[in-house]
Amino acid sequence: MTTIASLACRLLRVPLTRPWAPEVTSVAVIETHLRRSDGAEGWGLSWTPQIGAEAALALLQHDIAPAAVGRSAEPGAAWQGLWEHLHEAGGGGVTTIALAGLDLAIWDAAARAAGAPVSRLLGQRRATARVYGSGVNLHYPLDELVAQVRRWVDAGYPAVKVKVGKPDVAEDLDRLVAVREVLGPDRGLMIDANQRWDLDRATRSLAALAEVAPAWIEEPLRADDVAGHAELARRLAAGERIPIAVGENLHTAYRFAEVLRSGAAQIVQPNVVRVGGITPLRRIADLAVEHGAQLHPHLLPELSGQIALTLPDTVAEPWVEDVEDAGFGALGALRDPSPVTIAHGVLHETEHVGLGLRFAPEGSPRLAR
């Protein structure tokens, strides 16, 4: 049996071209380097925009790496046992973010040993994936928001996502009307409240915002409020019929199963790092198929775009999210060319092995100290 021989980690911070908030001016990446007993190597990552990177690094170095050595290096084989090992520190959140660093490195090593991209190991189902433009833009003045949407339209994106949640829903509506005028009737418009509303405010707000025909409302309520989302879904089914999307802040397949069983969402958006890697994301994809839900992976297009090419067909083909000027390649953080390209709202893989994601060396001018 091929086993895990070692796991090394390094933390780096990548400055953002467009800060996501006054306190979010960079994103943190923990690059992981795995060696197998047969000599094969793999590289993975954990990621967090701002909070918890040092905690995830500590878990990887002090808890995950020692527990992983000697376990099977077959993709997926070690995940459940290690999740159970970490459970005393929490079933999800920092624990699953850290665990992704190992899981992704295991998949990368297997694909590199086979001389193939990870998508081939997973079973590629489509040659391309559709992409929507996205931005952390609630703090943008209206003219900057409209200019951003024009850039997406000029670049050929077939859909965009815009943040909502201003203190007065009338301001949200004014902003979305201006966005819809730029988009026209044929491009999709998704909206994301980032957990800013309670149930009654969400109900009132969506009644007003239905005017711009949103393709979905993302995280209208606190992410873990399953009962609230289920009630909101019932209200929307009787009125505006706007689908609910959740998942970027859910961390285990168990939580996704609970959301889907309760009818709390029609769309799930797992973040491959936050759920713990490719292994649990595949389980979540199976749940989406079982419950007839759409699945669109969250953020990290260089990683989630590759996975989108392998996802099973659900109600609709997966969308890949591309936050403006926030991809690792666009930020200059990668050692090698990006494993994907995005043009005219379509993602293609480039020639690479494994995940094709290794980060720039220490001292690179694009990495923060």
Offer a few descriptive terms.
369 residues; alpha/beta; 10-stranded mixed sheet; 3-stranded antiparallel sheet; 19% strand
Brief overview:
The protein is of the alpha/beta class. The chain is built from eleven helices and 13 strands.
Cα end-to-end separation = 40 Å
Helix content: 25-40%
In terms of structural class, how would the helical and strand content be classed?
alpha/beta
Identify low-pLDDT runs: none
Rg, rounded, reads 20 Å
Largest sheet: 10 strands, mixed
Number of beta strands: 13
Order of helices and strands: EEEHHHHEHEHEHEHEHEHEHEEE
Average per-residue pLDDT, rounded, comes to 96
Task: Give your account of this protein's structure.
This protein is of the alpha/beta class. The chain has helices at residues 53-68, 79-86, 94-114, 118-122, 142-154, 169-183, 199-209, 226-237, 253-262, 278-291, 301-308; strands at 4-15, 26-36, 41-48, 129-134, 159-163, 188-192, 217-218, 244-246, 267-268, 294-295, 319-323, 340-343, 346-349. Strands 4, 5, 6, 7, 8, 9, 10, 11, 12 and 13 form a ten-stranded mixed β-sheet that branches. The protein has a three-stranded antiparallel β-sheet with strand order 1-2-3. Helix 5 runs parallel beside helix 6 (169-183) and helix 7 (199-209) packs parallel to helix 8 (226-237). The longest helix is centred in the N-terminal third of the chain and has 21 residues, at 94-114. It starts with a strand and ends in a 20-residue tail after the last strand. The mean pLDDT is 96.
